[in-house]
Amino acid sequence: MKHTFLFAIAAAVFTNIGTTGAQTAVEGYAFEENNRGYLRQVDILILELPEKVVKAELSTDGNGHFSTMLDPGEYRVVAKKDIFFDWDEKITVSNEKVFLKIEMKRKPGYLFDITIAEARESPDVVVDAVEGATIEIFNRTKNKPELVLRQHPNAFFQYTFEQGNHYTMLIRKPGYLAKRIEVYVNIEGCILCVDGVRSLSPGITENLTSNNTTGTLLSNIELERAKIDKRIQIQNIYYDFDKWDIRSDAAERLDNVVNLMRDNPGLSVELGSHTDSRGNDEYNMDLSHKRALSAVAYIISEGIDSARITAKGYGESQLVNRCRNGVLCSEAEHQLNRRTELRITGISSDSLEYLQWPSLDEIINEESPEKKARMKRAKARRDNRLPEANNSTPLPDLKAEAAGSIEESSDEAPPELMASPQFETAAIIAPPGNRLAADATPVPDTPALSIALLQLPDKFSGFSIEVATADTLWAQIDSSMSTDFDIYWLQKPDGKYTYFTGNFESAAAARGYYYKNVERRLPKARLVRFNKGKKTYFK
C-alpha cells in the first residue's frame, strides 16, 4: 500500500512537468546573434491570437532567461530591446513545455563599454575609479535625451550609439571638471568619430565589421579634479595682426569655453591672453589685454554670467620657454608662448550642488541654432589646419608707430561689460558696408545725404549698435553722427524713436567692432541682437 501511494505521487509530479492544471510553461532566453552573449532586460510581449490580447509582459533576467505560464492556443511573441531589431514569432502552445531561443540582431551602431576614472598625472600613476557621477546622453540628430543616470552607483556603464546620429555625452560629479564628449556615427562622412576621449580600445579600424555597421569599444573617461589656480589651455585662438576682433574661427573655439562654463555652473575663471616675446613689451601687454577683454565679451554674450569670468592680458610676462627678448627661437617655440588659458578662480563648495545643475537637455536648448550647425561640422573642422597664429610678428615687421598708438588699458573689465546703462544720444564711426539697405524703406522727404536715414525692416534679424533715442523722428542726421553706415530708426511702443547703425553678420563681428572703435569714445552705445524684429541687448 505504501509503495502504491509513492508511485501515485511520482506520477503526479511527472504529469505536472510542463503544465499546471490547464496551463503550459513557456520559457527561453534571448541572446545576440552569432552567440555574442545573453541579453538582459529584453522586453517580452505575448499576445493571444487572433484577437491579439496581451497575455504576458515580462523581461529577461541577468542571464537572458524568462518564463511564464500560458493556456494552450496560438500566440505571437515579440521581443524588444533598445539598439536591437525587434524579434517577432508565432508559437503554438499545447500540453508540452515550449522553449524559445530568441536571437536578436543589433541595429547598426557601436557599443561603448566605459569606465570613469580620475585623470592621471602620469602614465605610471594608479588612479581610482570614480563612482557616483551623473551621466547624460543627448541625441542631437533626434533632438531628445537618450540616457540619464543620476549619481550612478558604480564607475562602469555601457551604451550603444546607433548609426546616422550625433550624440553629446556629459559626465559630471561635484569636485571634478565636467567631461563633454561628442560622438558621430556614420554621419557627416564620419564612420565613427569621438571628440573628448583620449583613447579607444581596440582601435576603431580594428573593431569594425566588414561593412562598418557595428563594433564594440572600450574607453576610460578621465575626470580632472577642479582646483583653485588650475590652468586649462584653450585651443589656439587666432587674431588678425594688430587686431582683437573675434574672428569666426576664434568664435568656434571660444564656444568650447562657453560649453565648459555651462557644464560647470559652480566654476569661476580668469581668461588670460599671452603673446610671444617679439615686439614691444608694452604693446604686447596692451594688445593681449584687449584680446582677453574681447574674448570674455564674446563668452558673456553667449549667456555666461559676467560675475563668473574675468579677463587679463599677460603679454610676454609668462613665457613657457627660453624665448625671451633677444633669444633666437623657431616659430614652433614662439607658438608655445602664444596661448589663451583659463585659470580657475572659484569653485562651489556646496556638496549638493548637483541638485541645481541644469540638465544636458536644458544646456543644449540654450545653444543657438548657429551653434548647433557649427557642431554638426565639427569633424570637418577637426581635419582642417588653421593658418599660422598672428598675434605677434617679428620686430622688423612692426610699424614704428604701432606700440605708441594703443592707449593704456586697466586690468578691470570696462563698465559696459557689467551693465547696460540707459542713454539718450550717442555718435558713432563705422566702416562702409551695409546689408540692410536693399530691404529698408527711406523716410519720406528726407534730404539727400551721403548717409541715409532708413526705417528698420519688419521682422529684421541681425546684429547692430543702438546709438540714440529721441522723442521725434529725425528730419536729418546730425552732423555729429560721423558714420559710413546708414542710420536706421524703429518706433517704440511708447512713441519714441530708437536709432541704430551697422548691420553685422554675427555677434562676434559687432562686438569686435564695438570694443575696438566705439567703447572708449561712446560708453553709452549698446550692442543689439534682432530676431525676427524682437530686440535684445547683449554684451
What does this structure look like?
The strands form 6 sheets. A 7-stranded mixed beta sheet has the order 22-23-25-26-24-27-28. The protein is of the alpha+beta class and 539 residues long. Helix content is 18%, strand content 34%. The chain has helices at residues 2-16, 248-263, 281-301, 331-337, 360-366, 369-376, 378-383, 415-418, 507-518, and strands spanning 19-20, 23-32, 37-38, 43-48, 53-59, 65-70, 73-80, 87-93, 98-104, 109-118, 134-139, 144-149, 156-162, 165-172, 179-187, 190-195, 214-223, 231-234, 267-274, 309-315, 339-347, 441-442, 453-455, 462-470, 487-491, 497-504, 526-531, 534-538. The chain is elongated. It has 4 domains: 18-104, Immunoglobulins (Immunoglobulin-like, Sandwich), CATH 2.60.40.10; 109-223, Immunoglobulins (Immunoglobulin-like), CATH 2.60.40; 231-405, 60s Ribosomal Protein L30, Chain: A, CATH 3.30.1330.60; 417-538, no CATH class.
Radius of gyration: 32 Å
- Strand order of the biggest β-sheet: 22-23-25-26-24-27-28
Shape: elongated
The stretches of 5 or more residues where confidence is low (pLDDT under 50) are: 4-20, 201-208, 375-450
By CATH reckoning, the class of the largest domain would read Alpha Beta
